[in-house]
């Protein structure tokens, strides 16, 4: 079991890795057509792991052509769902068989602790592939209640060529949330991983081919957003663009679509999630643990990070002391050490961005109560301490903008009513949480909070069976659950007039 491997064991395995670093188009690995590459860097050491194909317009054209040809050929799209299921289950199985390799690639590529890539990212990704694979031969279409001389069928069909553009914070998991329902529904898929974290997506392509996904059905194009991402967004022969990433880039995709073929655009974007702790919370120790995990898990690089702690004045000091005591035990460490709870920030750019917000918080007059410093481990890497700002005003930058780092903004409020107003005072609406032992407040808040997920007495609850997505500028559409199929299928009405 991975959990038993030591830091030295993991380090010892690095030399044995072989990095897939070319694009995967039409069932084959291939260099980018321009020959351009970019450095794939381990953020914990600054070392270049490999040089990866930097795909651009011509590569996108080739991938879309391969995907369209595969879709038209119909080997995958017209395959019996039960057979597609078997292939997807095989892929899930191969992912679990290669769990340690995938976890190591993920940790080296983006800096997250190996403790989580082995237990959260890879098993969660394989489970996603498995769940959508299992679903497809259990979904039935509909027949409408029409007059007796008519049969009207409401059927769902694969949308066609689907492009998925994903971020770096959970590279494999975010990819699998998109590609699993898209493939299961019979589409041809082009996945563009973030330039910071292409390695697991490329290995996934190889495993998919080994599982039996026909050539051209699953393609992976590493490359930059402005080039490969934009070319996918503007392509005239892409039917659906499913995106996870920042709100800023999500808006670009809406523009790309409007200026090209009006492809469907589905957006899972940023967040600034409120985590409300009322004085009647059932157990402050439990609430503190969940609050700490809610902000510092994955270095705070989580779209649903509970980055605004809205807490009733009368318990604030007691509660904050508990949260900070947990934070003190989560200081960043070598991501390959299985004891490490917080790893490296994904790259220097992100580190500078987060440090810029820490600076802004101090300048705006919030009280830096904990952390706030950049840390170097073994003289390398970009690590940031778990950080807490107290006495934050909700109008401050650190309360309104997504930091995407380990920075908690604590906003004291006088009562539950003010907590609700402050919670909804944001452009985002991805998630929110409320800790209370009053069923009336729990219900009132869960109805009134304007976000796609509301957690009561926990943080980050949910599994593959529950939909996930945002209100407001956190996006549209839903990942996970059967609702995810809505993004990747077209609905057709067939009205048959009987003689
Ligand atoms: P990002 O928006 O910078 O990049 C995401 C993807 O878009 C990458 O593949 C990137 O190459 C591509 N891209 C960047 N610029 C582009 C452009 N001009 N045209 C086309 N494509 C472009 O986001 P990120 O920094 O990789 O990830 C962090 C963001 O992702 C945060 O805002 C976070 O909240 C969000 N996120 C949201 C969810 C969710 O489910 N709602 C989940 C994870 C992350």
Automatic annotation (TrEMBL):
Protein family per UniProt: Belongs to the aldehyde dehydrogenase family.
SUPFAM superfamilies: ALDH-like
PROSITE patterns noted in UniProt: ALDEHYDE_DEHYDR_GLU
Protein's name according to its UniProt entry: Aldehyde dehydrogenase
Keyword Oxidoreductase in annotation: yes
Domain Aldehyde dehydrogenase: 34-493
Active site: 268
Keyword Oxidoreductase included in the entry's annotation: yes
Source organism: Reyranella aquatilis
Record's keyword terms, sorted: Oxidoreductase
UniProt cross-references to Gene3D superfamilies, sorted A to Z: Aldehyde Dehydrogenase, Chain A, domain 1, Aldehyde Dehydrogenase, Chain A, domain 2
Pfam families hit by this protein: Aldedh (PF00171)
Matches recorded under InterPro entries: Ald_DH/histidinol_DH, Ald_DH_C, Ald_DH_CS_GLU, Ald_DH_N, Aldehyde_DH_dom
């Amino acid at each position: 079991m991975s959990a038993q491997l030591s830091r030295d064991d993991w380090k010892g395995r690095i030399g044995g890795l072989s990095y897939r670093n070319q694009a995967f188009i039409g069932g084959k690995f291939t260099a980018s057509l321009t020959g351009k590459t970019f450095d794939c860097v381990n953020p914990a050491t600054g070392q270049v792991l490999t040089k990866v194909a930097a795909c651009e317009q011509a590569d996108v054209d080739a991938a879309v052509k391969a995907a369209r040809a595969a879709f038209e050929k119909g080997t995958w799209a017209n395959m019996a769902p039960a057979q597609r299921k078997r292939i997807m289950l095989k892929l899930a199985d191969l992912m679990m068989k290669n769990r340690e390799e995938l976890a190591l690639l993920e940790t080296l590529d983006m800096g997250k602790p190996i403790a989580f890539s082995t237990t959260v990212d890879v098993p969660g990704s394989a489970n996603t592939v498995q769940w959508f694979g299992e679903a497809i031969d259990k979904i039935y279409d509909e027949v409408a209640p029409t007059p007796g001389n008519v049969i009207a069928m409401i059927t769902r069909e694969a949308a066609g060529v689907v492009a998925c553009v994903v971020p770096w914070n959970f590279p494999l998991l975010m990819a699998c949330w998109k590609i699993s329902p898209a493939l299961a529904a019979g589409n041809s898929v082009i996945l563009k991983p973030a330039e910071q974290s292409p390695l697991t997506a490329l290995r996934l392509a190889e495993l998919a081919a080994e599982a039996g996904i026909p050539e051209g059905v699953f393609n992976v194009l590493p490359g930059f957003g402005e080039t490969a991402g934009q070319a996918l967004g503007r392509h005239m022969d892409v039917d659906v663009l499913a995106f996870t990433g920042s709100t800023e880039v999500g808006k670009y995709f809406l523009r790309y679509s409007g200026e090209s073929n009006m492809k469907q655009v589905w957006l899972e974007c940023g967040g600034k999630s409120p985590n409300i702790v009322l004085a009647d919370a059932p157990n402050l120790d439990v609430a503190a643990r969940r609050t700490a995990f809610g902000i510092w898990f994955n270095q705070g690089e989580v779209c649903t990070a509970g980055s605004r702690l809205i807490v009733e004045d009368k318990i604030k000091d007691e509660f904050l002391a508990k949260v900070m005591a947990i934070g003190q035990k989560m200081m960043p460490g070598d991501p390959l050490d299985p004891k490490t709870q917080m790893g490296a920030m994904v790259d220097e750019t992100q580190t500078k961005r987060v440090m810029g917000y820490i600076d802004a918080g101090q300048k705006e007059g919030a009280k830096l109560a904990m952390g706030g410093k950049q840390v170097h481990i073994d003289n390398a890497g970009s690590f940031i301490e778990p950080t807490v700002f107290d006495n934050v005003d909700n109008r401050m930058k650190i309360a309104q903008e997504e930091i995407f780092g380990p920075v908690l903004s604590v906003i004291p409020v006088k009562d539950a009513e003010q907590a609700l107003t402050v919670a909804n005072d944001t452009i985002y609406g991805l998630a929110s949480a409320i800790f209370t032992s009053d069923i009336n407040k729990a219900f009132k808040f869960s109805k009134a909070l304007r976000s796609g997920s509301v957690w009561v007495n926990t943080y980050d609850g949910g599994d593959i069976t529950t939909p996930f997505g945002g209100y407001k500028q956190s996006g549209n559409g839903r990942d996970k659950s059967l609702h995810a199929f809505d993004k990747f299928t077209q609905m057709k009405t067939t009205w048959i007039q009987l003689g």
